[in-house]
Design brief:
Mean pLDDT: 78
Low-confidence stretches: none
Biased composition (Basic and acidic residues): 64-90
Order of helices and strands: HHHH
Distance between the termini: 118 Å
Structural class: mainly alpha
Biased composition (Basic residues): 1-12
Number of helices: 4
Largest sheet: none
Organism: Blastocystis sp. subtype 1 (strain ATCC 50177 / NandII)
Biased composition (Acidic residues): 41-63
Protein name: Casein kinase substrate phosphoprotein PP28 domain-containing protein
Helix content: 55-70%
Length: 185
């Protein structure tokens, strides 16, 4: 929902720099503004500190000296552990059992996994039977291929016979033409 009477100004035109010089000038102006703000903030904080120090120094002049002369007791810092040396014991995690490498663990499969394995094995067995030609589809395919092979052989035999018949006919025609030419001479 839009806030207020006039709404938000999300669709306003963006002001984009046209060249590299504009970008550099804009960045320089932003840096100068940040420096001015920091300087003014530091001056304000220095003034407030100096005024508070003046008030404190008037009331307790020896306090600073006492603090300086006191031996500083540093708390021993705990080293940060980048690497965990000890394993964190998780109570919810079952401990590992030491099994010799020779023993095989039986994996418990879910019902879905068992069905998928059975389906995969069945497909592989069916594919193997298909390759051997023992399935109905394979038998039908082999019969169809045998029929096609027989048809092609028959067609090749017919073409060969027709070519032989044409060649014989051409030889007869040539022979008759030669005999006519010899008879006229």
């Amino acid at each position: 929902m839009r806030g207020g009477k006039r709404g938000q100004h999300k669709g306003r035109e963006r002001v984009l720099a046209e060249n590299e010089d504009d970008i550099i000038a804009r960045n320089m102006m932003e840096r100068e503004e940040k420096k001015k703000r920091r300087d003014s903030d530091e001056e304000d904080s220095e003034e407030s500190e100096s005024s508070s120090e003046a008030n404190e120094s008037e009331s307790e002049p020896d306090r600073e000296e006492i603090m300086r002369n006191m031996p500083v007791e540093e708390k021993p810092r705990k080293p940060r552990r980048a690497v965990v040396d000890e394993e964190i014991h998780n109570l919810n995690r079952a401990p590992k059992k030491n099994n010799p490498q020779g023993e095989r663990l039986e994996v418990q499969l879910s019902g879905r996994q068992k069905r998928e394995l059975e389906e995969q094995k069945a497909k592989e067995a069916y594919f193997q039977k298909t390759l051997e030609g023992k399935t109905p589809e394979a038998k039908a395919t082999l019969e169809r291929l045998a029929r096609i092979r027989a048809q092609r052989e028959e067609a090749a035999r017919r073409r060969k016979e027709q070519e032989e018949a044409r060649a014989a006919m051409e030889n007869r025609i040539k022979e008759q033409a030669r005999l006519k030419n010899e008879g006229k001479k």
